Amino acid sequence: MKSFLAGLGIGIGLGILFAPMSGEETRDNLTQRASDLAESARDLVDQGRERVRSTVSAIRGQAERFTGTEATGTGTGSARSL
């Protein structure tokens, strides 16, 4: 899949470079596409970060229900003894 996406990116890049546009138009086009790509990457990172946060929160909630304590992150909570 990565190879396909890499090939697609190279193909698009070559298509842009050989398109009948002036150098300035081509540079502007490449700049805009790079900006769009960077924004998409930031969005994906933000989505991944939010997924990790929600997963950690869910795991903490399950751990709290299991142990009957509140996870404070200070290490002072104690587990219920049976």
- How much is the average pLDDT? 80
Largest sheet: none
Q: How helical, in percent, are the residues? A: over 70%
Q: In one word, what is the shape?
A: elongated
Which percent band covers the strand fraction?
A: under 5%
Low-confidence stretches: none
Q: What is the element string, with H for helices and E for strands?
A: HH
Radius of gyration: 24 Å
How many runs of DSSP E, i.e. beta strands? 0
Task: Give the class from helix and strand content and strand pairing.
Answer: mainly alpha
Give the CA-CA distance, first to last residue: 51 Å
Number of H- or I-type helical stretches: 2
List the helices and strands and how they pair.
Elements: H1 2-17, H2 23-67
Question: How would you portray this structure in words?
Answer:
- By secondary structure, the protein is an all-alpha fold.
- Helices cover 74% and strands 0% of the residues.
- The termini are far apart.
